[in-house]
Specification:
The complex is a heterodimer. Chain A is α/β, with parallel strands linked by helices. Chain A is built from nine helices and 13 strands. Chain A is globular. Chain B contains nine helices and six strands, in the order H-E-H-E-H-E-H-E-H-E-H-H-H-H-E. Chain B has a six-stranded mixed β-sheet, with helices on both faces. In chain B, helix 7 packs across helix 9. Chain B is globular, with a radius of gyration of 16 Å. Classes of the chains: A alpha/beta, B alpha/beta. Chains A and B meet through helix 3 and helix 4 of A and helix 3 and helix 6 of B.
């Protein structure tokens, strides 16, 4: 079991009140101590977010630090999301430095992500390894040809150790023009606007490796396991009765209830 | 040593953060010349804590105070011959996130082993780089030198060096693993 786990929840506030309980119960059994850092914009869905909108939900959990952030100029999803993640990382680093310790593992996720637990063991990520859904190739056009695929990395959940998290959080600094410069085909296909593509490119550019690589190398008979059975982004337009316990539904049922990522 | 047009050029093009680990005699002069947007010092003697502290301070300026910083200049010696950096500072547009600039040291042994003077001296010199590159130095205190050395297959060599040399190698390995090139500036351009 992990000794000290930091969970950085960074992103637009959105449906946090609908999913927070699931998130807490998801992380609780995974570590002896779970610390939370919460970073969100001061406004979400035209509503002002107040301190109470954050603190009220953490009455029995360890909320170490939180930040309500003024808007930034960029409207690009990649930069907006990673600006908040960067601040979450800063809060975590400052807490570590002041208290002279280092978290064993760090998860970065967002306030609108619903997890379904699994019993799978979490393999520990060491330096330069991370755990998330595997990078995949995504079709960028209607024509299913090899050259029309691009690299795709998800943006809702990533686990690593603390040093690797410090590297990953640097993805805010990606030079949009630099990444698209060398692939004009992707630019014309519109992929340069895909934050999933940027995510995958950054991880590769800094020599970071998905844990699935290590497992495949060391125990090739073991399939890749992700940290959760499945996960769903709960959007504001998913107008379901949030007093209903989502855990009672099967994957298929919940897929009809919510948009399936 | 430093000409006026040179500094006018810097001020027109770059937002500079000047960081230092100690009180250099010529630091006031450097501040006067560079006119940095941000000036930060750390009081830690241990190099790991010093970089952790400096990077946290820079990051707060960037993300909490939203100060624009194009370049971080790390002053670590009184030899303030900043004209060595002239070519990049005057025309900084090739300074991307995968480059780290330090002065050229007059050793001809740099390609023989990583333990030679060129690399050993890296941290002991003034250097500059983009903010992203500088912020990576935060994790020097989280990843032990031996872990980095093992990854770059230099463990046996590392065991033969002094603690001080270890410090400089630590720095070098980290940049190497992250695909960050160390660029040695030449005196005459």
């Amino acid at each position: 079991m992990i000794d000290r786990l930091a969970v950085i929840i960074a992103g637009e506030y959105r449906t946090w009140p609908k999913i927070y309980n699931y998130m807490f119960s998801f992380f609780k059994p995974r570590a002896h101590r779970v610390d939370y850092f919460f970073v969100t914009w001061k406004k979400s869905l035209d509503k002002e977010i107040t301190d109470k909108d954050v603190t009220d939900y953490f009455q029995i959990e360890n909320l170490i630090a939180y930040q309500l952030v003024d808007d930034i100029k960029s409207q690009h999803t990649y930069y907006r999301q990673n600006f908040l993640i960067k601040i979450g990382n800063l809060l975590k680093k400052e807490f570590e430095f002041k208290n002279d310790f280092i978290y064993d593992q760090v998860v970065v996720t967002r306030p609108d992500f619903y997890f379904r637990k699994s019993n799978a063991e979490w393999p520990i990520c060491n330096n330069f390894f991370y755990q998330t859904e595997p990078l995949i190739r995504e079709l960028a056009s209607s024509e299913d040809a090899p050259e029309n695929y691009y690299l795709w990395g998800q943006d809702v959940y990533i686990r690593s150790n603390s040093a690797t998290d410090d590297i990953i959080s640097q993805k805010y600094f990606i030079d949009y023009h630099d990444f698209s410069r060398n692939n004009t085909k992707f630019v014309t296909m519109g992929i340069r606007s895909s934050h999933h593509y940027f995510m995958a490119r950054f991880l590769m550019s800094r020599n970071l490796l998905p844990l699935s690589c290590k497992l495949a190398y060391e125990k090739s008979d073991q399939p890749f396991r992700q940290d959760y059975a499945f996960g769903l982004v709960v959007r504001d337009y998913h107008d379901f009765d949030h007093t209903v316990n989502l855990e009672q539904f099967t994957v298929e049922q919940i897929g009809t209830l919510l948009y399936r990522r | 040593m430093v000409t006026l047009p040179f500094f006018i050029n810097i001020r027109m093009s770059l937002n500079i953060a000047l960081v230092s680990c100690k009180e250099l005699i010529e630091l006031p002069k450097l501040r006067e010349h560079l006119k940095p947007n941000v000036f930060i010092q750390s009081t830690f003697n241990d190099y790991k804590k010093m970089f952790a502290d400096l990077t946290l301070q820079i990051e707060k300026e960037l993300f909490l105070n939203r100060v624009e910083i194009d370049l971080v200049f790390f002053a670590n010696e009184d030899e303030l011959d900043v004209e060595r950096f002239d070519s990049v500072l005057k025309n900084p547009w090739g300074l991307d996130n995968s480059l780290f600039f330090t002065k050229n040291i007059e050793s001809k042994q740099q390609s023989v082993l990583l333990l030679q003077k060129d690399y050993i001296n890296i941290v002991n010199s003034n250097f500059f780089c983009r903010p992203e590159t500088f912020l990576y130095l935060h994790i020097l205190y989280k990843i032990p030198m031996t872990d980095l050395a093992e990854k770059t297959k230099l463990l046996t060599r590392v065991q033969e060096i002094t603690p001080q040399q270890m410090q400089y190698l630590h720095f070098f390995h980290l940049l190497t693993i992250l695909n960050i090139s160390i660029h040695h500036l030449h005196y005459d351009r």
